[in-house]
Design brief:
The complex is a heterodimer. By secondary structure, chain A is α/β, with parallel strands linked by helices. Chain A is built from ten helices and nine strands. Chain A has a six-stranded mixed sheet, sandwiched between helices. In chain A, helix 3 packs across helix 5, helix 3 runs parallel beside helix 6 and helix 5 packs across helix 6. The longest helix of chain A has 18 residues. The radius of gyration of chain A is 19 Å and the shape is globular. The N and C termini of chain A lie far apart (37 Å). The radius of gyration of chain B is 26 Å and the shape is globular. Chain B is 71% helix and 3% strand. Classes of the chains: A alpha/beta, B mainly alpha. At the A-B interface, helix 2, helix 3, helix 4 and helix 6 of A face helix 20, helix 21, helix 22 and helix 23 of B.
């Protein structure tokens, strides 16, 4: 069976420095994979190449068996959604607006033509789908709140809901627990788990918080200095001497 | 080869002026985050002051020293103290708008000061005027030697100063993060103020040196120096002072050599040679990757700054929105009927011009208010629309209203061409790009006789009549009503986009391009669409403006008007259609009203236009605290006061939170 996401011998160099070095990995449909590694391991760079924000130096990214178009918006249209390590929200828009932006873009219902010909900016169906995503993320009460007025935990929830609104097939979650307290991180992990159960979404999770990785991921890939150094179940990967050495600077 | 060296050597003094301005631009930009579009205006003001002091008998050297070392630093410190130091470091848009405010207001203040007098070029501030000597076989006069010597001395002193612990180290640290500098115990305000004083003195020095020996001191010449200096600064990515200095001299030399070899009296000499710096800047903006990330903050303390205020539409009390929706049509109807019935004929044409200008200004609402792009080329698009209309009507017999639509279409194509290089840029680089395009438009389009006719321009007829209503007379109420109908239709289109999927998506792109792209928003397609629509609207407005006055000439929409239009609309309110319409009407009516003032205050046409621009632009300095515009702010204050009074009268209770929180 073809994997939903395949990263095949991907390398990324900045100048002479290989930040991602010959990485190959795969994520099956509906699977949750954790990507761990110390700072500078190349996780976020790999993410950005998968999302289409950076070109690869060599190798290729395949989605659903084919090489997707290069630009991030085109990959989002194929069903690759992502959240960011530093939350990227839209100042001046409400929570509901955030979801509408993504949903209408995905449905190709956005732009001057729709506004001038059909007027009305939101249909009842669009609002219902957005509210469904908000419900899934536990943000139903905040639909009309300005996004900038929210706490960090809620802002991360809005980002997740925005990613989920168009019904993606793969979620790239970049350190979703960053800046959250342990309770908020646990709640966010539970939300991602619930979303997976209800939608069958595949998740590739970059995370430093191992508790979140353990709660969400079925399989873990460890990176160090741009290379994959271990892969397998959570327990076996975090016990791997190479992983321990890369993380703590000494063998177990 | 000797000829080549002759051209090159003679151009070095010109390159010195570019160098000084380029270094000043980079110094201000790197130290304070302000890209000083007002640099040319400051240089011009300094040159005029120097010339006037000399005319009034002050010794030329003393006059130059006073202007460069006393007046200019005081002016720079005042700008920082009164305006720029009050803007949060991260609010780059506010800084750009305020710098554009200087660019627009200062030359008008100078014009008001000198009236219609011609300012003759003064002599060089130091040394002899005549021949000093030869380099090889190339003669150098006193002015050229003075330019070379002054530039060498100033750049050397600056290079040494920037290496000192007392001045240079804090300036270089402030470039990275003023907040971190403060945490280290250094008062960054004084460092930034010193940078302003030095850079303004550099502008003044460039102005004084450049004016010497010129037949006449004119602002347009300084604007050309500014763009050449921007190109020089861009060679160093707006980061490196030595590269900016070298770039200025290099650009001066290349320009001089090209000018020397291109035969005079050819289209190449008249149109393309003066455009050389614009082409260089255009290429750098498009192909130098530095400019794609120029606005990305590198300050590690940026996150501690409060976020900028929310857009006006998000801050309005809902009851105010409902009231505006309810009242706008009756008010518009009453206004139109009042104009037709009550207003004297000579004011009708001003109101018609106001309606046409409002259409042009609505294009800025779309591009700046909605998409957050600062375009300085809207006057260019208006001009393209006006000249196309005139040509289609006069030379091809196309009915004038159809020709106006053709003008809008051609301007839209111009918008598409402008959008292509702008796609990868945001913020300041877009402003630079559009300034560059506007200047190219001046040289390549509005300087071409088969497009603009003679220097007096082309006549543009009004539609003769429509359903029996006469449009053709100068003070025709029928044509006024037609303009208002077109204005309302355009406002309706812009309003639909503002409140529709386009507005929401463009707000998202403006707030976080990467977040919007990750949501699938077609950033490129939307950006191109908005550029095209905005240019087409400006073109339509330009066509009606030309019909209003019955003529369009090369100066009607020259590049100087682009910044004026932008600053006026942003000052009054770029985020709502009411803001653009108010700005358009106010521009035309205040201009007309000022013509009644006594001559010595500004009774000449020139004075009235300058006073109008100053009055409507001065609010640019409040942009940081009121990004929604003065009109929107005042409207909200009045509405809140009224609602508070009504609530108090009805309930004798406290003001509802929904109203209070929006004050």
């Amino acid at each position: 069976m073809t994997a939903l996401l395949e990263v095949v011998h991907v390398t990324k160099r900045f100048g002479g420095n290989a930040v991602v070095d010959d990485v190959t990995l795969a994520v099956q449909a509906g699977e949750a994979v954790g990507l761990i590694g110390a700072n500078g391991a190349g996780k976020t760079t790999l993410f950005r190449m998968i999302a289409g924000e950076l070109p690869t130096t060599s190798g290729e990214v395949r989605f659903d068996g084919a090489v997707p178009p290069r630009r991030p918006e085109a990959r989002a249209m194929l069903g690759i959604a992502r959240t960011f390590q530093l939350v990227e929200l839209f100042e001046g828009l409400t929570v509901l607006d955030h979801l509408l932006v993504a949903l209408q873009a995905h449905e190709r219902q956005q732009g001057p033509l729709r506004d001038l010909v059909w007027r009305g900016s939101t249909t009842p169906e669009e609002r219902a789908r957005c509210e469904e995503a908000l419900e899934l993320c536990g943000l139903h009460d905040l639909a009309d709140a300005p996004a900038t007025a929210l706490s960090l935990g809620e802002r991360r929830g809005v980002e997740l809901a925005r990613a989920l609104a168009p019904g993606p097939r793969l979620l790239l979650a970049d350190e979703p627990s960053s800046g959250l307290d342990p309770d908020e991180a646990t709640a966010l992990a539970a939300t991602i788990g619930r979303v997976r159960t209800e939608t069958g979404l595949a998740v590739l999770l970059v995370e430093h918080d191992l508790a979140t990785v353990a709660a969400v991921a079925e399989r873990v890939i460890a990176m160090d200095a741009g290379r994959v150094i271990a892969e397998g179940e959570f327990g076996s990967v975090v016990a791997n001497p190479l992983v321990v050495q890369s993380w703590l600077g000494r063998t177990a | 080869m000797a000829e080549f060296f002759s051209f090159a050597l003679l151009s070095v003094p010109y390159g010195c002026a570019f160098s000084l301005v380029a270094v000043g631009l980079v110094l201000t930009y790197r130290a304070t985050g302000v890209f000083n579009f007002g640099f040319a205006a400051e240089a011009y003001a300094a040159a005029v002051t120097y010339a006037e002091l000399y005319q009034h008998g002050v010794n030329r050297s003393v006059a130059a020293i006073l202007v460069v070392l006393v007046f200019a630093p005081i002016f720079g410190a005042t700008l920082d103290f009164a305006f720029f130091s009050r803007v949060p470091p991260g609010n780059r848009t506010a800084k750009t708008v305020m710098a554009l405010g200087i660019m627009v207001i200062l030359p008008q203040l100078v014009l008001l000061g000198i009236g219609e007098n011609t300012v003759l070029g003064p002599p060089t501030p130091f040394g002899t005027q005549g021949l000093v000597g030869y380099v090889g076989s190339v003669p150098f006069d006193g002015q050229q030697v003075c330019q070379l010597a002054a530039t060498a001395v100033v750049l050397t002193v600056l290079a040494i100063a920037l290496r000192t612990r007392r001045f240079g180290l804090p300036v270089r640290a402030a470039v990275e993060s003023p907040k971190l500098l403060e945490l280290s115990g250094v008062d960054s305000r004084w460092v930034l103020r010193a940078a302003w004083m030095v850079s303004t003195a550099l502008a003044a020095l460039a102005g004084v040196l450049y004016s010497a020996g010129e037949a006449q001191v004119q602002y347009v010449d300084y604007n050309l120096v500014l763009v050449a200096a921007i190109a020089a600064a861009a060679l160093g990515g707006l980061r490196s002072l030595p590269l900016a200095a070298l770039g200025g001299i290099l650009l001066g030399v290349i320009w001089g050599v090209v000018q020397g070899y291109v035969p005079p009296d050819t289209v190449w000499f008249v149109a393309l040679v003066p455009s050389l710096p614009f082409f260089v800047l255009l290429l750098l903006l498009v192909f130098n990757p530095t400019f794609r990330h120029l606005e990305d903050s590198t300050d590690p303390m940026a996150a501690v700054e409060p976020p900028p205020p929310a857009p006006a539409l998000a801050r309005r009390p809902p009851v105010m929105d409902r009231t505006i929706r309810m009242l706008r049509w009756p008010l518009l109807g009453i206004a139109v009927v009042a104009v037709v019935v009550l207003v004297p004929h000579k004011w009708t044409n001003s109101l018609t011009a106001g309606a046409s200008l409002s259409i042009i200004f609505l294009s800025i609402t779309l591009l700046t208010g909605l998409a957050g792009q600062l375009s300085l080329a809207q006057a260019l698009f208006a001009g393209i629309g006006a000249f196309t209309t005139a040509q289609l009507s006069n030379n091809f017999g196309v009915p004038i209203l159809i020709a106006a639509l053709g003008g809008a279409l051609v301007a839209g194509v111009g918008g598409w061409l402008a959008a292509l290089p702008a796609l990868r840029l945001r913020g300041l680089p877009v402003a630079l790009l559009t300034l560059c395009l506007a200047l190219l438009g001046d040289n390549l389009l509005f300087n071409t006789s088969w497009i603009v006719g003679s220097s007096n321009g082309i006549n543009v007829a009004r539609p003769s009549s429509f359903f029996g209503v006469n449009f053709s007379s100068y003070d025709s109420e029928g044509f006024f009503v037609l303009c208002v109908v077109v204005m309302v239709a355009v406002a309706g289109v812009v309003n639909l986009l503002l409140h529709g999927t386009t507005g929401r998506a463009l707000t998202a792109v403006d707030a976080s391009p990467v977040g919007a792209a990750s949501g699938g928003v077609p950033v490129r397609r939307l950006t191109i669409s908005v550029f095209i629509l905005s240019a087409a609207i400006a073109g339509l407005g330009g066509a009606f403006y030309a019909m209003t006055y019955g003529n369009v000439d090369p100066t009607t929409f020259n590049s100087l008007y682009g910044p004026v239009f932008l600053v006026v609309v942003v000052t009054v309110g770029a985020s709502t259609v009411e803001g653009a319409i108010t700005a358009g009407m106010a521009y035309a009516l205040i201009n007309q009203a000022f013509t009644y003032l006594p001559v010595h205050v500004g009774g000449t046409q020139l004075g009235a236009a300058s006073l109008t621009i100053v009055l409507l632009s001065v609010g640019a300095f409040t942009y940081a605290s009121h990004p929604e515009g003065i009109f929107e702010y005042v409207k909200r204050r009045i509405a809140t006061t009224v609602f508070r009074a009504v609530e108090h009268h009805q309930h004798r209770g406290p003001v509802p939170a929904a109203v209070e929180e929006h004050v």
